[in-house]
Amino acid sequence: MPAEPRVVPRFAAEPPHEPLPYGRWAERLREEFLAACLAIDAQGEDVGEPGDISWHPDRTWHGHTYLPATATTSTGLELFGHVRFRTPEPGREPEELLASADFTSETAAEHPEWSLDLCDEVIGTWVGERSATAAITLVWGRALRGGGAIVTAELADLVVDQCPLQEGRFTLIAPDDYRGDFLDVKLFSERGEELAAESLYEDDADED
């Protein structure tokens, strides 16, 4: 068997374990996320009032579970972020909840050409061969095309994470920006047909 040409973490995060939040748990998460939204430095922008929060599948990495969220505001902007908590032992309540949030005017409603609506945040670093570093990145979003079943994260055509859709939403944790390679996020049908692909850096590439 030949040596692996690209040594990089693959499927480092645990798969989703729970359904999308509901009930009292969803309300507790909502309070944490909205508190983080109130702390955003909008720099004079009228962010508006948040609408319903869309929760995305949970992913666990390095002892913490991440629950990403998005919400459209009354001024047409989008709030995005996540609630992180220490992964509880069975039968115990989650502890050390910490939320982060930001906003953007770049929304799917303004970009009908998008096939995937993506958000991302770097949550850690991995040091590889010859001290090359990868940005461990939390990626979440929703499919804007029908017929999808699973979403993958690919680095130089190597699948490094995947997540089945839950109500059209997904969450990935994957290495990015490693040895000159960057993540591509792809949507596949149950039959393995590629339906859509987006790069986290597509807008930057277009500007260049």
The termini sit apart by 40 Å
Percentage of β-strand residues: 35-45%
- What is the molecular shape? globular
Number of distinct helices: 2
Number of strands: 12
Largest sheet: 5 strands, antiparallel
Structural class: mainly beta
Q: Your description of this structure?
A:
By secondary structure, the protein is mainly β. It is 11% helix and 43% strand. It has helices at residues 23-38, 202-207, and strands spanning 54-55, 59-61, 64-72, 78-86, 95-104, 116-127, 133-143, 150-155, 158-164, 169-176, 183-188, 194-199. Strands 1, 2, 3, 4 and 5 form a five-stranded antiparallel β-sheet that branches. Strand 8 (150-155) and strand 9 (158-164) form a beta hairpin. The radius of gyration is 17 Å and the shape is globular. Residues 204-208 have low confidence and may be disordered.
